Amino acid sequence: MNGVRLSFAVAGLAMSAAIGAVIWPHARDAGTILAARDDPAALADLRINSVLRNNPALISDNIEAALAAGDADLATSFVALAAEQDIALGDDLTRRVDDARAEQSSTTHFAKGFATGFVTGNADDVASLSGTVAGDLFVFGDVRDVVREGKHLVMGEDTDQLVLGLAAAGLAVTAATYVSVGGAGPLRAGLTLVKDTRKAGRLSEGLIEWAGRSTREVVDQPALREAVATGSVLRPAETATAIRAAFRAEKAGALVRVAKDVGRVGEAAGIRAARDTLKVAENPQEIARAARLAEAKGGQTRAILKLLGRGALLLAVGTFNLTMWLFGALLALFGFLSSIKAITERATAWWLRRGKARRLRWQMSAQVALAGSAAQG
Fold first, then answer.
1. pTM of the predicted model as reported, rounded to 2 decimal places
2. Highest taxon of the source (predicted)?
3. Burial degree of 120 (CB within 10 A; 0-12, 13-18, 19+)
4. Which residue ranges in the chain fall short of pLDDT 50?
5. How far apart are CA 219 and CA 252, in angstroms?
């Protein structure tokens, strides 16, 4: 019976050790991820390491795809990520990236992009965004957008309330930019980026819903209708003054914080990184995390967002699932220690019984011998 109980304890020890060996890698990774959940850069490093460990050729493949799509900025971001991860790239590939980047940085390309951004308000790179921001700083861009959307509002037609609110906020911020001699520049650029991303149809659904609610609160609709009815892009200064009067600055705190964070991404990682962020982030908290990621990773940010998507900004696996791996490891450890305790107790009990039995046999043998001696005497 004692042998059977000891065998069960040994089997329990072996089973706990086997389960622990299987669970431990997952529990270790879960613990590391949970420890980094509040640090976007550390969390991105963990996930990037895992992705590249499974497919080291992923970076070169993405560089080729970016070059084929004419996106030298994204290709350059992947080159920076490869350098950070100590992944060697072929000389021909890096040369092609350098050539593509030089072409897109040429004076002709910049001038064309600047003019496109200034006139249309659509930004896709540094040149076109420079034109868009210039147009907004001279109030032309924001007045154009407010008048266009405001006319729809006055006529009872479908109105993009988000573009309308962002343009109205932009006019107020533009005044602050001049007063602070550029001190509000990142905020101004952030508002322009959000507005342009919305116009291009690349804003995430979550941000569209949130920003739509926020912008409706910052615009006095009756005052805006009156400003639009009397305003014109041919009188931008006069129209801007009337529109600013319809802007409720006290309601714009959340919108301003988001625009500042978008501006931080643009400053640290580039315009297209900010656009990519607005495409994957679903709420202001994720944009704030993207700003922290961009400030830590710089030029690598676009590549990280391309590889991880929204997973670069939050835990891709639920906290509950990660916690369960840790809980399972603790249960396996508890079972292992309990089995050791049981084996120790039962082995000790067996040893004591064995010693007691041996002493009893020795005593009985001594008594028999003594009795035999007495009989002979």
1. 0.68
2. Bacteria
3. middle
4. 178-179, 181-182, 317
5. 9
